[in-house]
Amino acid sequence: MAQLMADSDLAISAAGATSWERCCLGLPSILVVVAENQRLVGRNLDLFGAALQIGTAEIDGELLSERIGIVEKKIKSMSDASANVTSGRGSALVLHYLMGGAYER
Q: What is the pTM of this model?
């Protein structure tokens, strides 16, 4: 999956936990909220400029085509915004915290 994301220019995906992996790779996304716990992630990544969020009730071929067109025009800024969401040091930060260290950004 990591290689597939690394080789991609755009992801169309649910707004779940994989969102953070895509951000670490600077991969812009069109996010479909498929569960209530994904709504906040999708909305905030959309507000940050890293993704475009759509709800499952809205999705159809025309809307998806429109959103892909939007991403094509903003791909560089969305990629930059996506890469700026995370530090890419997630596992090191978790280990540091578990070993008693304070959180460092």
A: 0.80
